[in-house]
């Protein structure tokens, strides 16, 4: 909500959009915003419910009436500050037609739009759009209890059912509130259990959801979008739906076949369709690459729509399947998906589904006789078995265009060669051992997939070369026993000949657009042809004698040009063709004198398209490149991972760092000699070599096992000009104080790097024995009398530190007048034995968003929050309003907050932790008080949190840990914690 308010305050922004799926809380947020801005930010606020079929004249009259204007709107009111809220907008509105005072001549008028369609907001000209996320499990639970009107912890049975109910609501506030209100006056666990079962079976989705989602579906502009949406409901609720399954199903059914002449073009179209459905909130993002998801509520409505409009029939379990057998269909279904069923009864012969075009069986078992009898008489175009038991295809399906036998135990599949119209064939992750020779008869085949078929050891010579229409060949982590071309020519009669790469290269280049293969040796590539010079081919090539690469996520079929090398990389890296086409590169275990990734290319452009680079186990690597490259080199790099490169002293020079404006993730692991990430080596004579360096898109920085790392960038670090601050308490060792007099500290992120990392979100540092300071903000001040407040690391959400043995300061030289670390949510500190405390009060009060703080095995830590500056005396306020705290094995910890004894016994400071949700204490033998600074007005109260000590000294090691919820000190009960 704060972001929306900030946008409304911005004079340059005249229209703001709030978007999200139905029930996510768009209208509620708009109403809350009206309460805040009415009479303050705006003189007048009007809220109009537009609805799917807007009546323009009615809206015009309503706006005029609520503003107290005549229809022509020619009054002084127009020149006041006005906010028009247009709720539930389904299509683009003509502001002039509805008489809305908007545009250059009405600068005081702003518009706030709520919509379930992000495209509508963009098309209306909204300059700032905000998508509302679903509630987290914790937020949904809090909302449920708030609606019920009482906590449910006292009844464990009811509490468990209630949590299951909130989980089924899928993070939608409207659903949570609706269910809670329905059960509010009935605390019977049987009623609640019944409601849970109905919710799981989609028997009680709120009618508002059904109507809203159905309307979204009906307003989809073409059959392609509707078909793509309904195909997604064939998969179980919550399933990560591979987008390439949608491509293959749509191609087989002819949904997009007639419009595109290649599978690749169809894939691009399906990806566009998925994006459009996401922008209408009918589909969601998935954590798996190349996949999408469907919300549970949307899934239930989609099945209902599919059953009515597309004649889709879905069965989730065996019980449902039996009822389907006994009750024949009253109409001819075209699409059937069966999940988690067992079929072994041949009475299903023909099924009466002669019009069936698509059949999917997932996580099911089917006998060969049942399968054979079931398929007879069908005119299937798509047949997909996913994780299905022993499977053989014996029935001739002349119309079949897509056949997927993924994750299956295969029997005799030689009859596949008779499927003369087959265009897509997949055995991915199956147990296939020999590719049948009959596949050579599939002259219409466009796509062959044997990804992750680890048992596939034999592809007879001559099969691949006959597939003249083949467009896409996927064989990653599969067959790699390619026969050298010279051995094919010299083979003896009767000897089994394997496929060769020469066969692959003989396929028409105008057709072959995707190639994903494993090659055991670079020398197997044909000498007279360079595989990667086929400009039309998108490739994914692994060159290694054995599969030494870690198992990745399922292959993203929209992958980019990728090469994975294990072993000697020198010869391959000399192919300059890679500089212009390669998008992902992984080099592993190259132990034969690979001193640089790039050499002898001074003045040239290198890796112009490269987006992902992984370097692992290259012990001789001294530098990524030697010589000065052109400015565009590595300009598209998004992800860089460097691990086990024991001689590498820096990740990249300044000359390359200047180009890494797209870099999003940087991971360095087990590089013992690395001293800095960016180096000015070779550019020492340039006065301002680093002035153009910036990483505006870097969000993840992970540095682990870099024992000699000193800094992100060593050059041009200013010596500290501040003498060490005098200490009056043994607990104050200057975590934010000035550094020791006139010497360079070993600072990970020194002042000259702060501006490089403005959007950093996650920082992890582990196993480092040189770093003394994490952040140094010296000099981060706005000069002059300007009212502008400087900001630093406002996007940082997570910091993890472990075994940083010399770390004495997390933050240093933090100016009083600065915004920093305000979005930090998670902070973990483990085995940092030089830390005496974490925060000064000045820093602690910035951390309003801190939710989770974990500190363990820091032997010298004496307090968490300390008074560091004299200006902090008399400071009051609540620290960490959202915090959950976990403290373990802190042998020197005396208190959570430093006392006024540091500066003045009369100080009236407030270091209380009243909103701490959970406090977990374990083996902290010297801890005596949770907060020694209590407001003077509370000192006589008896409800101050206290510690009940259960032991001291060595005996505390055997004492049990305690986890206790903490709430405001306004509560009357006395809190006791045993440690």
Automatic annotation (TrEMBL):
Q: Which GO terms describe its biological process?
A: defense response
Residues annotated as signal peptide: none
Membrane-spanning ranges:
none
- Key words of the record: ATP-binding, Nucleotide-binding, Plant defense
Q: Which SUPFAM superfamilies match?
A: L domain-like (SSF52058), P-loop containing nucleoside triphosphate hydrolases (SSF52540)
Under Pfam families, the record lists:
LRR_RPS2, NB-ARC
Biased-composition ranges, Polar residues, are 943-957
The NB-ARC domain is annotated at 2-148
Q: GO MF annotations for this entry?
A: ADP binding; ATP binding
Report biased composition (Low complexity) as residue ranges: 958-969
Looking at the record, which segments are called Disordered? 935-979
> Which residue ranges does the record assign to the Disease resistance protein At4g27190-like leucine-rich repeats domain?
600-672, 744-859
Q: Which InterPro entries match?
A: Apaf_helical, At4g27190-like_LRR, LRR_dom_sf, NB-ARC, P-loop_NTPase, Plant_NBS-LRR
Q: Which family does it belong to?
A: Belongs to the disease resistance NB-LRR family.
| Protein name, entry field | Uncharacterized protein
State the organism of origin. Answer: Prunus armeniaca (Apricot)
The organism's taxonomic lineage, starting at the top: Eukaryota, Viridiplantae, Streptophyta, Embryophyta, Tracheophyta
């Amino acid at each position: 909500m704060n972001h929306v308010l900030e946008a409304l305050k911005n004079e340059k922004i005249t229209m703001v959009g709030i978007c999200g799926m139905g029930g996510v809380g768009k209208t509620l947020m708009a109403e809350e915003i009206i309460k805040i801005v009415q009479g303050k930010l705006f003189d007048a606020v009007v809220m109009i419910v537009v609805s799917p079929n807007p009546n323009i004249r009615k809206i015009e009259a309503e706006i005029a009436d609520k503003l107290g204007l005549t229809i022509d709107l020619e009054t002084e009111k127009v020149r006041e500050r006005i906010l028009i809220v247009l709720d539930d907008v389904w299509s683009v509105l003509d502001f002039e037609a509805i008489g809305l005072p908007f545009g250059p001549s009405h600068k005081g008028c702003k518009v706030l739009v709520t919509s379930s369609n992000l495209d509508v907001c963009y098309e209306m000209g909204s300059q700032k759009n905000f998508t509302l996320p679903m509630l987290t499990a914790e937020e949904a639970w809090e909302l449920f209890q708030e609606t019920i009107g009482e906590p449910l912890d006292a009844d464990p049975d009811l509490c468990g059912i209630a949590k299951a109910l909130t989980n089924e609501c899928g993070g939608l506030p409207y659903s949570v509130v609706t269910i809670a209100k329905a059960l509010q006056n009935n605390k019977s666990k049987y009623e609640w259990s019944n409601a849970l079962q109905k919710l799981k079976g989609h028997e009680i989705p709120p009618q508002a959801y059904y109507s809203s989602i159905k309307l979204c579906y009906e307003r989809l502009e073409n059959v392609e979008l509707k078909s793509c949406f309904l195909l997604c409901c064939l998969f179980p609720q919550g399933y990560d739906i591979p987008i390439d399954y949608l491509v293959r199903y749509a191609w087989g059914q002819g949904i997009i076949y007639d419009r595109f002449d290649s599978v690749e073009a169809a894939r691009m179209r399906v990806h566009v369709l998925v994006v459009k459905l996401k922008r209408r909130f009918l589909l969601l993002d998935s954590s798996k690459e190349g996949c999408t998801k469907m919300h549970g509520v949307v899934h239930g409505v989609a099945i209902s729509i599919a059953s009515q409009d597309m004649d889709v029939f879905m069965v989730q379990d065996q019980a449902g399947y039996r009822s389907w057998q006994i009750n024949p269909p009253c109409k001819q279904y075209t699409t059937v998906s069966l999940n988690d069923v067992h079929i072994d009864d041949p009475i299903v012969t023909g099924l009466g589904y002669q019009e069936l075009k698509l059949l999917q069986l997932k996580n099911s078992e089917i006998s060969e006789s049942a399968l054979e009898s079931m398929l007879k008489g069908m005119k299937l175009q798509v047949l997909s078995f996913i994780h299905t038991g022993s499977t053989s295809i014996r029935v001739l399906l002349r119309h079949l265009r897509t056949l997927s036998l993924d994750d299956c135990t295969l029997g005799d599949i030689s009859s596949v060669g008779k499927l003369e119209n087959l265009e897509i064939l997949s055995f991915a992750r199956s147990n296939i051992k020999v590719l049948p020779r009959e596949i050579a008869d599939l002259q219409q085949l466009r796509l062959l997939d044997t990804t992750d078929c680890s048992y596939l050891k034999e592809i007879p010579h001559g099969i691949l070369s006959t597939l003249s229409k083949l467009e896409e060949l996927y064989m990653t982590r599969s067959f790699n026993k390619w026969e050298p071309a010279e051995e094919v020519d010299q083979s003896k009669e009767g000897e089994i000949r394997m496929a060769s790469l020469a066969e692959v290269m003989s396929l028409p280049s105008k057709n072959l657009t995707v190639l994903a293969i494993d090659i055991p040796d670079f020398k197997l590539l044909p000498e007279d042809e360079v595989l990667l010079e086929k400009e039309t081919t998108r490739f994914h090539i692994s060159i290694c004698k054995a599969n030494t690469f870690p198992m990745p996520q399922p292959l993203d079929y929209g992958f980019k040009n990728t090469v994975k090398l294990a072993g000697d990389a020198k010869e391959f890296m000399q192919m300059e063709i890679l500089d212009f086409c390669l998008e992902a590169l992984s080099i592993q275990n190259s132990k034969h004198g690979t001193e640089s990734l790039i050499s002898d290319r001074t003045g040239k452009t290198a890796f112009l398209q490269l987006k992902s680079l992984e370097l692992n186990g290259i012990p001789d690597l001294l530098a990524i490149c030697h010589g000065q490259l052109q400015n565009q080199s590595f300009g598209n790099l998004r992800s860089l991972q460097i691990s086990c490169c024991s001689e590498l002293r820096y990740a990249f020079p300044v000359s390359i760092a200047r180009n890494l404006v797209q870099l999003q993730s940087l991971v360095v692991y087990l590089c013992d000699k690395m001293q800095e990430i960016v180096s000015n080596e070779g550019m020492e004579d340039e006065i301002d070599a680093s002035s153009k360096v910036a990483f505006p898109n870097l969000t993840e920085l992970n540095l682990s096992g870099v024992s000699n790392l000193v800094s992100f960038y060593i050059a041009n670090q200013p010596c500290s000009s501040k003498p060490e601050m005098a200490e009056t308490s043994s607990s104050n060792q200057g975590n934010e104080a000035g550094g020791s007099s006139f010497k360079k500290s070993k600072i990970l992120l020194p002042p000259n790097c702060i501006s490089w990392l403005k959007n950093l979100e996650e920082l992890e540092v582990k196993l480092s024995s040189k770093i003394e300071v994490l952040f140094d903000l010296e000099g981060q001040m706005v000069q002059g009398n300007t009212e502008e407040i400087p900001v630093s690391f406002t996007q940082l959400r997570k910091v993890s530190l472990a075994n940083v043995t010399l770390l004495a300061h997390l933050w240093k030289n933090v100016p009083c007048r600065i915004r920093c670390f305000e979005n930090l949510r998670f902070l973990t500190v483990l085995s940092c034995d030089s830390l005496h405390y974490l925060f000064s009060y000045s820093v602690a009060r910035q951390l309003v968003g801190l939710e989770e703080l974990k500190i363990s095995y820091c032997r010298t830590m004496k307090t968490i929050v300390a008074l560091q500056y004299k200006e902090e005396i008399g400071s009051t306020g609540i620290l960490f309003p959202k915090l959950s705290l976990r403290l373990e094995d802190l042998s020197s910890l005396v208190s959570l907050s430093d006392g006024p004894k540091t500066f003045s016994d009369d100080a009236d400071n407030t270091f209380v932790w009243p909103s701490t949700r959970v406090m977990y204490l374990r083996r902290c033998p010297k801890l005596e008080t949770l907060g020694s600074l209590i407001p003077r007005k509370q000192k006589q109260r008896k409800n101050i949190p206290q510690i009940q000590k259960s032991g001291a000294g060595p005996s505390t090691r055997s004492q049990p840990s305690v986890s206790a919820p903490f709430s405001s000190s306004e509560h009357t009960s006395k809190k006791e914690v045993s440690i």
